[in-house]
Write a structure and sequence with these properties.
four-stranded mixed sheet, N Utilization Substance Protein A, Chain:P, domain 4, GMP Synthetase, Chain A, domain 3, about 40% helix, disordered C terminus, about 525 residues, five-stranded mixed β-barrel, single chain, alpha+beta, 17 strands
Length: about 525
Amino acid sequence: MASIYQSIEMLSKEKGIDPQIVLDAVKDAMLAAARKHYRSQEDLIADLDENTGNIQIFSVKQVVEAVEDPLKQMSLSAARKIDQQAEIGAEIREPKPTDTLGRISAQTAKQVILQKVREAERDSVFSEFQGRQGELVNCVVKRLEGQDYVVDIGKTEARLPKKEQSRVESFGIGDRVRCVIKGVERGGKNSGVLVSRGAPELVMRLFEQEVPEIYDNTVAIKACAREPGERTKIAVFSRDRDVDSVGACVGMKGMRVQSIIRELRGEKIDIIEYSEDPLQYVIKALSPAKISRVTIVDSTDKHMEVVVDDLQLSLAIGKRGQNVRLAAKLMGWKIDIKSEEEKRRELESRMGDMVISGAPVSVLLNHGMEEHIMEKLVAADIGTVERVGSMTPEELEAIPGIDEAIVSQIQAAVVSFYGQYDSELSEEAPVNPEEIEAVIDASGPADAEAGEAHATPAAFDNIETGVLEHDLATHALAPVEETDKSEVLDLGRVEGLSAAPSTLSAVVGSAEAAGIAESDTMEKPD
């Protein structure tokens, strides 16, 4: 017992816990053993003797004038035998021998000490690793428990559960692996530190180690989505306009990203550039697929619709929906992907299902129909003005409570309703003969002048040899030598007038001869 204090110091250093915690555990163990040995209801306490290094057990009693409970009280005369300075109301410690404790009591003390030490060790581990979640640690595989690995992370052991492993990885005893701290469980069967090889934080920490620009915060990792062993999408953003965020992560000839891929046993990694605009962000997140257009359905619920070409649909969705699923995780949005053909069919179906409801029958109240009539129409499942207007008087009279007078009122209201649109969409036309004649007189002079203008178009001013002004303006005439009166001019040889008649008799004479010939022709009898 002389070396108990030294043993406590050694145990505290080995377990990495406070020596006072171990000392309190030993005291509690001694008290439990003493109570089990003495089987008494006395108030017992344990204390460390700093001179000898031993732990002593004391029975605590209160000094009173008249003793009522001998186990917890003591008379003044008996108290002064132990302590001459004792007074009424003081507490006296009466030592109990510990060398009489048997094997059973020692075994009880041992169990209490181990339990207290384990609890103290668990609390120490929890306080140390609670703030280190997401940190990258180097581990050594110690053993395999079921489908979980138990790894050594230095001061304590950690558990690598099956759900936090990559499906393409397997390790042997003694293998060195790099994991991230997933969390710390304080109680339960699997209490302790949990590490992970399948968390997105592992990829982020590996990039921080491999890419100096990320380590010094020139390039920031905005988001990461991962399906362990298959594919990872990571979004990066550069705080320096002169630094390419994607290029910095890829490295020269892909050296930086290739080292991370080797650490992850060949897992594919997509590095994309982050954007504050969700429309641009989703185009990059769904790469390598090419997006046709993006529509935000609901910005509050973060829901968008993406339309791609028919040949790009399978690429955008990915194997078993992997590409779109990772993009949705990366962005935090709900993404619906549709092909052009699917979107077209959807629009056609929507247009086919679209039914013009028309104006409700209640609007006829503003056109002279009474409310009780409207209620009868609604009760007969007639809810629109269009439906009422398409019904015959006989069909209206077949409705309960509607007679011929009510039918006339309904028809008048319908006519009044449609009449407001006719007055807006059509202009008022003159109906009286005087109004019609006034309109004709007002437009007469203008129409007459227009008729004269059309009767003598300017295109006929330059008729010389049967060629219109349009032809003269668009074709350059070659110079033609002066011909005799009886000579026939061949217009086919004139440049640019090949479409003109092949021959035309040129009448070259005085104006008087032309006038005489014209008058002679007009005076000939039919």
